[in-house]
Design brief:
single chain, 117 residues, mainly beta, 7-stranded mixed beta sheet, 4-stranded antiparallel beta sheet, globular
Length: 117
């Protein structure tokens, strides 16, 4: 059974930093990303990284967040700097495996990030 386990969330003041980690079991993913969902809002993709290292970010976090992955550990990280109250949300790790004719997607249980003003 594939598992993605997030860690590193917490409470931080505005302007502070947090580093989220997501450890995945099983074989490597073609894509790994971080989503977030705030109360009353839709889930949004914050950052993603492919197996060849290509990255993409939501406009709202560009220049502040950095996604990286350690394939040897099957782990993805999200370094979050200059945090703002609007970054408050539950952050979910997402992993996608692709094979001919099939796409499998997995998600972790989420970790709460709260940024106080």
């Amino acid at each position: 059974q594939v598992q993605l386990v997030e860690s590193g969330g917490g409470l931080v003041q505005a302007g502070g930093s947090l580093r989220l980690s997501c450890a995945a079991s099983g074989s490597a993913f073609n894509f790994m990303g971080w989503y977030r969902q705030a109360p009353g809002k839709q889930r949004e993709l914050v950052a993603g990284i492919t197996s060849d290292g290509s990255v993409n970010y939501a406009d709202s976090v560009k220049g502040r967040f950095t996604i990286s992955r350690a394939d040897a550990k099957n782990t993805v990280y999200l370094q979050m700097n200059s945090l703002k109250p609007e970054d408050t949300a539950v952050y979910y790790c997402n992993g996608v495996r692709v094979a001919p004719g099939i796409k499998l997607e997995y998600r972790g249980q989420g970790t709460q990030v709260t940024v106080s003003s």
